[in-house]
Amino acid sequence: MASKPVEQLSQVIVRFAGDSGDGMQLTGSQFTSETALLGNDISTLPDFPAEIRAPAGSLPGVSGFQLHFADHDILTPGDAPNVLVAMNPAALKTNVKDLPKGGTLIVDADAFKDRNLQKAGYAANPLEDGSLEEYQVHAVPLTTLTVGALKDVEGVTSREAERSKNMFALGLMSWLYGRPIEPTIEFLNAKFAAKRPEIAEANIKALQAGFAFGETTETFAVTYEIKPAKLEPGTYRNITGNQALSMGLVAASKLSGLPLFLGAYPITPASAILEELAGYKHFGVRTFQAEDEIAAAGAAVGAAFGGMLGITTSAGPGVVLKAETIGLAIQLELPLVICDIQRAGPSTGMPTKPEQGDLLMVLFGRNGESPVPVIAASSPSDCFDAAIEACRIALKYRTPVYLLSDAYLANGSEPWLLPDVDQLPDISTTFATEANGEDGTFLPYLRDEQTLARPWALPGTKGLEHRIGGLEKADRTGNISYDPENHDLMTRLRAQKVAGIASDVPELEVDDPDGDAKVLVLGWGGTFGPIAAGVRRARKNGRPVAHAHLRYLNPFPRNTGDVLRRYEKVLIPEMNLGQLLKLVRAEFLVDAVGYNRVRGVPLRASEVAEAIEAMVDQ
Amino acid sequence: MSTMKDFKTDQEVRWCPGCGDYAILAAMQSFMPELGIERENTVFVSGIGCAARFPYYMNTYGMHSIHGRAPAIATGLATSRPDLSVWVVTGDGDALSIGGNHLIHALRRNVNIKILLFNNKIYGLTKGQYSPTSELGKVTKSTPMGSLDWPFNPLSLAIGAEATFVARAIDTDKSGMTDVLRAAAAHRGAAFVEIFQNCPIFNDDAWDFVRDDKEGVNRIALRDGEPILWGADHEKGLRQRADGSIEVCAASDPDVLVHNASHPTPSLAFALSRVTQERDNGTPVGVFRNVERPVYDDLMSEQLATAVEKRGSGDLAALLHSGETWTIS
User: Fold this and answer.
1) How far is CA A377 from CA A383, A409, A512, B321, in A?
2) Where are the beta strands (DSSP E) in A226-373?
3) Would you put residue B36 in left (φ > 0), alpha (ψ -120 to 50) or beta?
4) Do A459 and B41 make contact, defined as CB atoms within 8 angstroms?
5) What is the strand order of the sheet B236-240 is part of?
6) Is the CB of B9 less than 8 angstroms away from the CB of A310?
7) Is B317 near chain A, with CB under 8 Å?
8) What beta strand segments (E) does A162-275 contain?
9) Which one of A35, A291, A427 makes the best mutation probe of the B interface by having the most chain B beta carbons within 10 Å?
10) In terms of DSSP H, where are the helices of A333-369?
């Protein structure tokens, strides 16, 4: 179709940036859908402010979406864009510093007017003052072209016509990188055709006009092609972490045979899980939007008492409120999964930005000796498997389990090789149906010898009536007990039960292709992509290095100490000030070193590589 | 058919001698069999406080949870298990102070739970601090110069939250309390019952004006459909002023109010809840409000059924493959 010369590229990183009202998230996700269908590997990073619509044209109102796509497998959304699309001066100002010299810059020339320039803090128009000389600048009057293309569409206000400029930009970018626009046309029809067909028509016309503009204008001399990536055979879909986590919970419900009950209170960046699960009522999923975070957790505990798969989801400021309820679940020894979609803290912090700051809170942020297993997902699609695993452990060991994700995994997306449903693990559990005591009594705290889990007897089961509660329990009977020896015993039993899970999870695997590395990089959770990419780079630069990534933070895999002691040096990159580092040093007496950044953005692969190389070269 | 004995546990009851909780427990244990609900289908959930020990003494399923959160926990249980009879036992500090938020939300949602609030106007388990129902100026360990807090009227609060069933009973009045509990159990939806309960240690005699009132001088018995008459010789009545508030009148007054617990708006019940010993030298007891409204648990079950009807029972493989997919061979 393209009549211009086609240049081959192996990978491109595009960033769309504009005002919060400019539809940049939609533009980015549609470009992602088009790209996914071409079979490229993809990784995306939406980056938006917590404010829904900060004043138009202002710096805090800028919303961005970065997309990395390639003809080979990639691990991150990319450190820096090759192409920046900036819809106004504020978007240019906040993003251009990330664009390397020589990078491509596409701007809406119409938006570079006095008032917008002033709002962004530009004294002079950067399109005219030579400050952008080092970039390949394409100043396209996107707004004028869009409005011109829509002049014949009836029933659309001039403001609505202007707002279609994001689709013009998408059309232009689709042409530039040879993406098909048909999926977006279908999407627009499905979204608007029923209620406002004229809006669908306007957006589609703008999209097509942008595509045609690319072909005819002299601004762009070439078009690019990125061949499909050689990914593992199978069926794929693009998925965000929150979607994958939601589907994982639904899968866990099916695999366990227990109906899912979600108690949640809206909070960024976890709300999408509540919204997603609310759409799965035909799976028997009950979603309860509670009056607060505490009630959300409490209702999930109540549902678990009744035999449901009890789940509660939140982010740091909400999780901290749930602490007392989680302590109750520890004492009750009932299954519960708490999903903490971590965001930058403390307090309200930066609600839309990722951080790994909650690890020590979920491990230790409760009164008393109160051990909880902790699992962390490592990529958007891994949230699916991590959710199933968290439910498996909760059900098998009758314990609350923390599942950690973060704002990057939650909103970021990647292609997901869809699993064969029949190959998913069986996580079914059993309920107590008859008395287990010698004299026909029911002993709610008589433990399974192997797992130390207690029986789960549901209300409605005749003859097993019993009372449980937050007060210390007598061993076996579960009656209230203040006996000193009993409390010591029960405290140790609860700790042993959680520690024993180590024998039920896989050993920590090490990626050390040549086996000659002296340095080990140890990560956990959502930093997998940048760390693995950094490791690749360091190896390419001639530095042998091993990489291990923890999914289980409590208990650690049983071989963790052996792995750590096998290497001369251990580097632990984290998006916090060294929380895993502290645990590793305390637990294994290993003199590990941290690489820590808390900027509210994912670690950069290039920086991780530099840190590795510096350590190898020491 | 179960008996009172079946509802007793082997646990030693650990309330103070003379505590009003004993009478409530006895009334509950003797009343449960007549409900015809099997023990195993009954669950008592409580928070923290003296009243919260209640579940340990009922031989049903039970959970003694955390301070103030029982309505939230019971909401999760009742919503996922509509087959159960779920009761919440709470106190004035548990329900109205630390758990105030959960209480009003459970009531407005109309979750099918029965909430019994043992009100003794004091913190007992923490040994005698003033509670959210203690009167202004109350001298306690934490208020040596008198409380500065204006108290909650629990019934006004519940009615303000548009609870569909609101009633009041007295710990020592076994037959009156049983009538109220029977009506609460029969109500589908959230039922809120305030029980005047005496704490002999930290706030003794707080309710003497109605507890000891055998002659009915101070009790105003509410009977649905009957004129509200009271006093030693039933010489007094209640009537509504033009502004909707309620005042005391003579029994012969032509405007004596006929009690209507199922009045569609909560205003009448609210006005009745403002009739107090302090203001009117009389205290209404019985069922203030009893109306039907869609029940949260039922609505949720209906939505699940509708979703299955419309979309078929959820298929996991289909879910994973929903949206745009592509295949690499």
Assistant:
1) 5, 8, 22, 21
2) 234-240, 260-264, 286-289, 309-314, 336-342
3) left
4) yes
5) B229-230, B236-240, B246-250
6) no
7) yes
8) 223-225, 234-240, 260-264
9) A291
10) 359-364
Pairing of strands B42-46, B85-91: parallel
A459 touches chain B (CB under 8 A): yes
pLDDT value at position A2? 45
What letter would DSSP give residue B150? P
Note the ipTM here: 0.97
Q: What are phi and psi of B245, to 5 degrees?
A: -75, 165
B29 near A CB under 8 A: no
Q: What is the mean pLDDT of residues B240-248?
A: 97
Residue A430 tokens read as 């059993």
- pLDDT digits 0-9 by tens, A36-67: 888 899 999 998 888 877 888 999 999 999 99
Chain A interface, best mutation among B13, B41, B53, B69, by max A CB count within 10 A: B69
As a whole number of angstroms, the distance between CA A452 and CA A458 comes to 19
CA distance B59 to chain A (A): 7
Cross-chain CB nearest to B303 (options A281, A419, A479): A281
Kindly state whether A466 is in contact with chain B, defined as any CB-CB distance less than 8 angstroms: yes
User: Which amino acid, residue A549?
Assistant: H
**Residue A3 backbone zone (phi > 0: left; psi -120 to 50: alpha; other: beta):** alpha
- Give residue A1's pLDDT band: very low, low, confident or very high (50, 70, 90): very low
Q: Provide the whole-model pTM.
A: 0.95
| Angstrom distance (rounded) from CA B315 to CA B312 | 8
Q: What digits encode the pLDDT tens for the residues A123-136?
A: 999 999 999 999 99
Q: Are B288 and B167 in contact (CB under 8 A)?
A: yes
Nearest-Cα residue of chain A relative to residue B306: A282
Distance from C-alpha of A251 to C-alpha of A243, rounded to nearest angstrom: 12
